[in-house]
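wait is this the right file?? whatever heres the structure
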């Protein structure tokens, strides 16, 4: 008996729940829960998504692994996010992917490379026409730890 699974709904719900955890005041209470939510979202997007969802899924995986102080995994997922076809991505989304790599590089203590990715992200944001979207990504960039 085949199950009817709403992959899109599950992907969105688990992404949103993971993001809520990441921005919870006082920090992430359970990094394993965040990793599980990110992986669940990624899996379900793999069934119904397109390049943007695949890239954002990899970005989210990178984000949680950077927070978990797992720089190899964080960098691998951040690089995977950037390998998706970005030709239809808005500039803010492209910038966000570079912010993700910057955060992953920070976790790996690759500080000059981190700064290079931040510069790329800011350059892309300079091309973004939607100021609300650009502002949101600038806030993410401000949140990248600096050592």
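ok assuming it is, sequence goes like this
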């Amino acid at each position: 008996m085949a199950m009817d699974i709403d992959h899109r709904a599950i992907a969105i719900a688990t992404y949103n729940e993971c993001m809520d955890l990441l921005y919870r005041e006082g920090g992430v209470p359970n990094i394993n829960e965040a990793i599980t939510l990110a992986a669940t979202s990624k899996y379900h997007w793999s069934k119904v998504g397109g390049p943007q969802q695949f890239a954002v899924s990899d970005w989210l995986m990178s984000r949680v692994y950077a927070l978990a102080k797992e720089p190899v995994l964080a960098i691998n997922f951040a690089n995977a996010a950037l390998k998706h076809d970005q030709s239809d991505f808005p500039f803010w989304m492209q910038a966000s992917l570079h912010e993700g790599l910057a955060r992953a590089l920070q976790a790996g203590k690759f500080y000059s490379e981190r700064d290079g990715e931040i510069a790329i992200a800011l350059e892309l944001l300079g091309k973004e026409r939607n100021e609300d979207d650009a502002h949101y990504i600038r806030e993410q960039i401000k949140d990248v730890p600096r050592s």
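The CA atoms of residues 21 and 28 lie 6 Å apart. so i think its the right one actually
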